[in-house]
């Protein structure tokens, strides 16, 4: 699948809200919170047009029992997919539209990391612009190699995560 990075779409928050409503129905009483994360959650940031959603649940193991209901919404269950304690679902195998990253509310390391990066980029548009420029430069160069795309962003993203976490823990100056 060719990697495409596009300008920010003001319709992304609405796309998140519509999908979050469906996820609320599936996750029901397990759901403690649901967040729009990733680049599509940052106004003005260039991104792959894929909505990242982070439901926070009271019991991660119970999410496994909902794989059939997630499949009914068009999601494919991918297990932890490299992040211990996560349940990852993707929608649209050929044309991805949504990624769902479910964490148990006790997994504060992952929850904090995702929210800190999102909130930091929302408050620091110069860093968001640098991140968007990097992604826009990488996408045509790597074409359909998602691993090369991720590798190309890795150093920037690691530094961004450290900065965002420090900013968040310092009270968000």
Give a written overview of the molecule.
It is built from six helices and five strands. It has 173 residues and is of the alpha+beta class. It has a five-stranded mixed beta sheet with strand order 1-2-5-4-3, sandwiched between helices. β3 and β4 form a beta hairpin. It is globular and about 40 Å long.
Blueprint of the fold:
Blueprint: H1 12-27, E1 31-37, E2 51-57, H2 60-64, H3 67-72, E3 75-77, E4 86-91, E5 98-104, H4 108-123, H5 125-142, H6 146-169
Parallel strand pairs: 2-5
Antiparallel strand pairs: 1-2, 3-4, 4-5
Helix pairs in contact: 4-6, 5-6
Report a brief summary of the structure.
With 173 residues, the protein is of the alpha+beta class. It has helices at residues 12-27, 60-64, 67-72, 108-123, 125-142, 146-169, and strands at residues 31-37, 51-57, 75-77, 86-91, 98-104.
